[in-house]
């Protein structure tokens, strides 16, 4: 090779190498941008302050490695926000419908304005490739159902249980009456109650919640929720109301006091056979026998028998199959706080119809439709064909 061509050849090689290196770097940059690419549309502008970059969440969760929960709703990861150092829980939800996602984001971000000590606070959200990422305050003691059913060594005292149910009742009263709109949660259960470091109960998971104006009429929608907590009238009306939330709260009260699920399907139950006796029937049976406190969870040790009896009877009243006979959450909170007298009722007053699945053929069919649950318990959904408006007048048993 002539001496003059050698430098030229080296120059060409250097240029080629630089071009290849640049192309490789560009490919890596594009790949990384795609990895952290987010979706944002015009309708999300008003929610800007609540958005957080996917890249920041990826770093906060150490690449989504610290999985702390999973279920039909998606996955939940523990994370630490880099700027504030705050511990958070990041819920990742897949969503295929663009319109449905828009409505979901609108509803969720609206609820981020809710402020109450017994509600888990939504901090941020992010949207990426059909996934919605919701960032909440981290609750170090997990969900209540883990303590009731998941940890054999966990023995919640009556003091803790009473504190938790009072807190959840206060949070639910705020949703129903204390905000600018009525918020119907639609999925109250122990799996959706999270516990902070001081064992305060906080109502969470507003993915099914619905809003409507005070004095307005709730819209007919799908019947959703968890079997055992769903008010029987919803199979006819399809409307989630504050009264249907009260029904679920009644089941929750019994669940916490008794340490049992509202409904348990045994392996021997066939599709055609009725379910095993539910928690309402069990507690009502103890009451008729004059020993209602024997329905209690035997693991919780000593407790105030009068307080326990009050909670059990209040749970039955809230779970009444007739929505007109249920109290509102204001009355419930007043009774739990000792600011109002307990209702003077008897098993006969509540009647022999305290059965969750006997009120309509539609509800019987509804039992057979199930979907994944956030806590491993059966979640159900169906569409209703009627939209009759229930009478909002309450006939309370308080005097």
TrEMBL record:
<feature type="domain" description="Protein kinase">
    <location>
        <begin position="62"/>
        <end position="343"/>
    </location>
</feature>
<feature type="compositionally biased region" description="Polar residues">
    <location>
        <begin position="377"/>
        <end position="389"/>
    </location>
</feature>
<feature type="signal peptide">
    <location>
        <begin position="1"/>
        <end position="26"/>
    </location>
</feature>
<dbReference type="Pfam" id="PF00069">
    <property type="entry name" value="Pkinase"/>
</dbReference>
<dbReference type="GO" id="GO:0004674">
    <property type="term" value="F:protein serine/threonine kinase activity"/>
</dbReference>
<keyword id="KW-0732">Signal</keyword>
<protein>
    <recommendedName>
        <fullName>non-specific serine/threonine protein kinase</fullName>
        <ecNumber>2.7.11.1</ecNumber>
    </recommendedName>
</protein>
<keyword id="KW-0547">Nucleotide-binding</keyword>
<comment type="similarity">
    <text>In the C-terminal section; belongs to the protein kinase superfamily. Ser/Thr protein kinase family.</text>
</comment>
<dbReference type="InterPro" id="IPR017441">
    <property type="entry name" value="Protein_kinase_ATP_BS"/>
</dbReference>
<feature type="region of interest" description="Disordered">
    <location>
        <begin position="377"/>
        <end position="399"/>
    </location>
</feature>
<keyword id="KW-0808">Transferase</keyword>
<feature type="binding site">
    <location>
        <position position="91"/>
    </location>
    <ligand>
        <name>ATP</name>
    </ligand>
</feature>
<dbReference type="GO" id="GO:0005524">
    <property type="term" value="F:ATP binding"/>
</dbReference>
<comment type="similarity">
    <text>In the N-terminal section; belongs to the leguminous lectin family.</text>
</comment>
<keyword id="KW-0723">Serine/threonine-protein kinase</keyword>
<dbReference type="InterPro" id="IPR050528">
    <property type="entry name" value="L-type_Lectin-RKs"/>
</dbReference>
<keyword id="KW-0418">Kinase</keyword>
<feature type="compositionally biased region" description="Basic and acidic residues">
    <location>
        <begin position="390"/>
        <end position="399"/>
    </location>
</feature>
<dbReference type="InterPro" id="IPR011009">
    <property type="entry name" value="Kinase-like_dom_sf"/>
</dbReference>
<dbReference type="InterPro" id="IPR000719">
    <property type="entry name" value="Prot_kinase_dom"/>
</dbReference>
<keyword id="KW-0067">ATP-binding</keyword>
<dbReference type="InterPro" id="IPR008271">
    <property type="entry name" value="Ser/Thr_kinase_AS"/>
</dbReference>
């Amino acid at each position: 090779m002539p001496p003059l061509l050698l430098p030229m050849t080296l120059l060409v090689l250097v240029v080629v190498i630089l071009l290849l290196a640049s192309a490789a770097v560009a490919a890596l940059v594009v790949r990384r941008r795609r990895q952290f690419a987010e979706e944002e549309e015009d309708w999300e502008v008003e929610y800007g302050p609540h958005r957080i970059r996917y890249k920041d969440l990826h770093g906060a969760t150490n690449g989504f490695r610290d999985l702390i929960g999973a279920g039909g709703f998606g996955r939940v990861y523990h994370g630490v926000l880099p700027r504030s150092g705050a511990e958070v829980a990041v819920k990742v939800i897949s969503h295929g419908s663009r319109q449905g996602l828009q409505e979901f984001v609108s509803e969720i971000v609206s609820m981020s304005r809710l402020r109450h000590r017994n509600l888990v606070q939504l901090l941020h959200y992010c949207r990426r490739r059909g996934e919605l990422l919701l960032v909440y305050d981290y609750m170090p003691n997990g969900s209540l159902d883990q303590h009731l059913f998941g940890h054999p060594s966990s023995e919640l005292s009556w003091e803790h249980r009473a504190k938790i149910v009072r807190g959840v009742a206060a949070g639910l009263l705020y949703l129903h009456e204390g905000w600018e709109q009525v918020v119907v949660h639609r999925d109250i259960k122990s799996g959706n109650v999270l516990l902070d470091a001081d064992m305060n109960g906080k109502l969470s998971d507003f993915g099914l919640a619905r809003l409507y104006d005070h004095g307005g009429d709730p819209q007919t929608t799908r019947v959703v929720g968890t079997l055992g907590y769903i008010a029987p009238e919803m199979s006819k009306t399809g409307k989630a109301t504050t009264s249907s939330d009260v029904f679920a709260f009644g089941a929750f009260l019994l669940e916490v006091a008794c340490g049992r699920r509202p409904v348990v399907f045994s392996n021997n139950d066939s599709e055609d056979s009725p379910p095993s006796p539910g928690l309402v029937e069990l507690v009502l049976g103890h009451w008729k026998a004059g020993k209602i406190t024997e329905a209690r969870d035997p693991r919780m040790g000593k407790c105030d028998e009068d307080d326990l009896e009050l909670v059990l009877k209040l749970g039955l009243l809230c779970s009444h199959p007739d929505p007109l006979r249920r109290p509102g959450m204001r009355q419930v909170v007043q009774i739990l706080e000792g600011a109002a007298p307990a209702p003077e009722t008897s098993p006969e007053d509540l009647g022999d119809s305290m059965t969750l699945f006997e009120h309509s053929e539609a509800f019987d069919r509804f039992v057979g439709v199930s979907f994944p649950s956030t806590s491993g318990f059966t979640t159900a959904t169906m569409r209703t064909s009627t939209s009759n408006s229930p009478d909002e007048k309450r006939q309370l048993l308080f005097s």
